[in-house]
Amino acid sequence: MTKEQRKVREREEMRNLILQNAALLIAEVGIEKLSIRKIAEKIEYSPGIIYHYFKGKEEIIENYLQQKYTDMLTELQSVQQEVQQELPPDTLLKRSLEKFIRMSLSTGVEYRNVMLNDTPAVLSYTAVLFRGAAQERKAIGMLCQGLFRFEAQKNREEAFVELTAQVIWSAAFGLIMRLLVEKDLPDDQVEALISCHLDSMVAIASR
């Protein structure tokens, strides 16, 4: 390994360390209270060091959100690839939504802190209810593609299917938020709620 290659690797390792600890802090205190000072304390470096790797808090948050969004799309795309297996549309929709729900629940407070943040920088990644979201948000776009496979949706206008996708996404989001808040529910109740939600969303897509 050359000296230049070593420097590049060390720089990436430091950036990853900063981002990993920023993610931990977001889960603990939320995006609003994230600061360069807190990140520096977490990694036991001076605040000035962080500015060698990021322009500021905003760039750290942007990189964090990009990674989270990429992770989510990767998971959802793995389900979408099952279209090639000619799965029935209701099965595909259920699998996609279930993966989204369980993935979001696994991140816990971190997911809640990000998704409930209303600052413009965060909303530029998390907003999904605007017109044209199917083109600008891949998650909504993939959901629309799945909906068009339902017989009831095939001849619908794209705008209507987009609205349906947004309603389905919002319903899943609401369930996720309540499950994160009511975290002491027994497992069988959680599973029953998720199952009922999936059946209800298929009913909406089929109407």
Automatic annotation (TrEMBL):
Domain HTH tetR-type, first and last residues per copy: 12-72
Chain segments annotated as coiled-coil in the UniProt record: none
Source domain of life: Bacteria
Gene Ontology MF: a single term: DNA binding
InterPro entries: Homeodomain-like_sf, HTH-type_Tx_Regulator, HTH_TetR
Protein name: HTH tetR-type domain-containing protein
Keywords, sorted A to Z: DNA-binding, Membrane, Transmembrane, Transmembrane helix
Source organism of the structure: Paenibacillus odorifer
Transmembrane segments: 159-181
Pfam families tied to this protein: TetR_N
Residue ranges for the DNA-binding region feature of this UniProt entry: 35-54
